[in-house]
Amino acid sequence: MIGPVVLIIALVAALSLWAAQVRGIPGAIGIGILITIAGASIGCLVGFLFSLPRVLTVDAGPAVVRLEAGAAKGFGDGGAGKPKPRLLASNTNLERISEWLTTMLVGVGLTQISSLFDYTRRFSNFIGTHAAIFTGIDGKPTAGVLPIVAPILLVFGLVVGFLSLYLYTRLALSPLFLMVEDTLTRDPGKEVIQGADHSIREEAATIADATQDPVMRQVADGRAISVEESLYVIQNLLYEDEAFDRAIQLGNQLAGTSAPQIAHYWLLMAAAFGQRHHFLLQSSGPAAKDTLAARRSALDSVKEAVKRDPRLKAQLRAMMNADAVDNDLQDFKDDPEFLAVL
After folding, report:
1. Which are the contacts of 244, defined by CB distance < 8 A and separation ≥ 6?
2. What's the whole-number mean pLDDT along residues 32-59?
3. Cβ 305 vs Cβ 267: under 8 Å
């Protein structure tokens, strides 16, 4: 949007600069447009400096993890309940320059108000001397009405430029800055899911009826379900007998949300596929392709979990211990591919 506007202004300025070299009315129009553009340029700069938004720095307090009950089951939160850490801070140099310049402009402007009339007179005299593009009655060069009109055009350009960029910065640039900050600080676990919430509510209600878990009841009866609440439901399913397929189904439904950005999601999927693999091995006459598919899915999930949070390696290795409470990956304790990842 702003690109074509700048291009048009540059074209008009070029044509006006050419016209300003011509005597007569075309030259007067060219000079008037150049004065207006010069004033608008200064006004745009001042308007931008006065409207530039500031990035607020807020000290991060202790994170309140809503679903702490899940940590007691051995999985931890895996990053699902923590705000996304900022690895890079916003550069505020432009904000500081804006603050310094606006303070200076206001201070200097207030001290020079009494000299404003003198500056206007000197500007008119300058135009009258150097813009003599007409020929007077006596045959001498004259600037016509340009010395009177020039200050008006300059002030007009200043006001229009200031208001234009001030409003553009406030209405267009500020939301863009806010969107960038929101993207950098967004917690994927807080995203409200759409589409899969019906299945998650049903599973949460079933678990709540069986265990009287208040968090599950809250998820089942709540208006909106977040990604981290969905992961908590999947986590609880992994502690029910042969409920891994239901956990995998819910996990697949979350694939279109921000859940895959969370390491804890992949840890739960690795546990679910590990349970499925163990179940197939223990079953009579398991299909080899199903067993291989479960192993491959578990391995891929482990890789994704480690890629997003290398600190999960120790937890995933502990899940290979057959004597542990969470032994979902026990079938892969000697698997070279799993060991190479962990």
Report:
1. 237, 238, 272, 273, 275, 276, 279
2. 79
3. yes
Q: Which of 281, 286, 271 is nearest to 324 (CA)?
A: 271
Amino acid occupying residue 199: S
CA distance 46 to 36: 15
Q: Give yes or no for residue 119 having a pLDDT over 70.
A: yes
Residue keyed to tokens 């702003």: 2
Side-chain-side CA neighbours of 177 within 13 Å: the count stands at 18
Count of residues making up the chain: 342
Specify whether the CB–CB gap between 259 and 187 falls below 8 A: no
Residue 99 structure tokens: 């603050």
For residue 184 the two structure tokens come to 């950098």
Sign of CA dihedral 204, 207, 210, 214: negative
- Predicted confidence band of residue 186 (pLDDT cuts 50, 70, 90): low
DSSP 293-315: HHHHHHHHHHHHHHHH-GGGHHH
Structure tokens at 245: 């397929």
How far, CA to CA in Å, does 196 sit from each of 62, 199, 220, 259?
31, 6, 13, 12
| Cβ neighbourhood burial of 238 (10 Å; 0-12, 13-18, 19+) | buried
Helix extents (H) in 20-145:
25-51, 93-111, 116-130
